[in-house]
Design a protein that fits this description.
Number of helices: 1
Strand content: 35-45%
Number of strands: 18
Largest sheet: 6 strands, antiparallel
Structural class: mainly beta
Number of domains: 1
Strand order of the largest sheet: 11-8-7-6-5-13
Oligomer: single chain
Helix content: under 10%
Radius of gyration: 19 Å
Length: 273
C-alpha cells in the first residue's frame, strides 16, 4: 500500500454513523468485538461496489531492472474504489495461536454486511493470511492481475492474489454514507492476532503502489524479444467471494509495450508495510 504518502492515516479516527465500531487495527476478542445479529445474508443489506481504478493501473508502467539478478520487472500501481451503498468490511477471528489453531498465519475471513437499521450480517468469505513480506494480514482472492498478449491470451500470471484493505484516497466524497475521515486506516501487523478488521469505506479507494513487492510481472524473457503489445488486466473479486452491488464492473486493463529497446529504469521493489 502507498503508506509513505498517507502517514496521517495512522492517526486514530472517529467513524461516523452506523459504522462507528469498525476500527481497522482492533485485536483480540473475536466475535465479541462487534457482534452481528445474523450469520447469513439477509435482503436489504447496504452492499459495497468494488471497482478497479484504470487510471492508477496506467500510472508509470516502467520496466524496472533489478541489478542484483538482471531481472526485468514490469511494475504497476493499482487501486480498488468503493462506489457502493455500504463499506467493504472484512474481519477475521480465531482462538489463541497458542491453542489448537493449525496454522498461526491464517484465520477464517468474514464479510460484514450492514443494514440501514444498524444491524449487520456476518458471512464467511474465505481466508485471511499473514504475509511476512508485507507485514500484515491479507484477504485472499480479493483481486487478480494477469499479463495478456495482443490476442488477450494469458502470458504471465501474477502471484499476488491477496491484499490488505484500507482507506487510502478519497474517491467519491459525494456518495451518501461517505465518512470524511478514513474508517479503515491499516492492517494488523501482529502475526499472533486473534481478531483482524480491514475494509474500504463508501467513497474511498485502496491503493497498491508499483514499488511494493508483488506489484509487478517478471518480464525478463519478453524484454529479449521484438517489441509487442501486452495487456495488464486487473480483476476485483476474481474469486467471487464478495457480496457487492455490481459484479459487471470488476475488470479493467491497460496496454503496454515490451521488448528490445523499451526504456527501463534502475531499481527494484521494496517490502510493503
Amino acid at each position: 500500500m502507498k503508506r509513505d504518502h498517507v502517514a496521517w492515516l495512522l492517526l486514530t479516527v472517529v467513524i461516523a454513523g452506523i459504522f462507528s465500531a469498525t476500527v481497522a487495527t482492533a485485536e483480540g476478542g473475536g466475535r465479541n468485538q462487534f457482534p452481528c445479529s445474523s450469520t447469513t445474508f439477509r435482503p436489504g443489506a447496504l452492499l459495497p461496489d468494488l471497482v478497479p481504478d484504470q487510471q492508477l493501473l496506467a500510472d508509470d508502467h516502467v520496466v524496472w531492472l533489478d541489478p542484483q539478478t538482471g531481472q526485468f520487472l514490469l511494475a504497476f500501481s493499482a487501486g480498488i474504489k468503493n462506489f457502493g451503498a455500504g463499506p467493504m468490511n472484512a474481519v477475521g477471528y480465531r482462538e489463541s495461536v497458542a491453542g489448537n489453531v493449525p496454522d498461526p498465519n491464517t484465520m477464517p475471513a468474514y464479510q460484514r454486511l450492514f443494514h440501514a437499521d444498524g444491524s449487520c450480517d456476518e458471512v464467511e468469505i474465505g481466508t485471511l493470511t499473514y504475509h511476512d513480506i508485507h507485514h500484515h494480514y491479507h484477504l485472499n482472492g480479493v483481486m487478480k492481475y494477469e499479463l495478456l498478449d495482443a490476442n488477450l491470451n494469458a502470458v504471465k500470471p501474477n502471484t499476488k492474489v491477496a491484499f490488505c484493505l484500507a482507506d487510502i484516497l478519497k474517491a467519491a466524497p459525494d456518495l451518501p454514507g461517505y465518512p470524511t475521515a478514513p474508517a479503515y486506516n491499516g492492517c494488523d501487523p501482529n502475526k499472533q492476532s486473534t481478531y483482524v478488521n480491514m475494509g474500504i469505506s463508501i467513497g474511498w479507494e485502496d491503493v497498491y503502489d508499483k514499488m511494493l513487492a508483488g506489484q509487478n510481472f517478471d518480464v525478463t524473457d519478453l524484454m529479449s524479444q521484438p517489441q509487442a503489445w501486452y495487456y495488464i488486466q486487473q480483476t476485483v473479486d476474481e474469486a467471487g467471494i464478495i457480496f457487492e452491488q455490481n459484479d459487471a464492473n470488476n475488470i479493467t486493463g491497460v496496454w503496454v509495450t515490451l521488448g528490445v529497446g523499451v526504456p527501463y529504469a534502475i531499481g527494484g521493489p521494496r517490502p510493503g508495510v
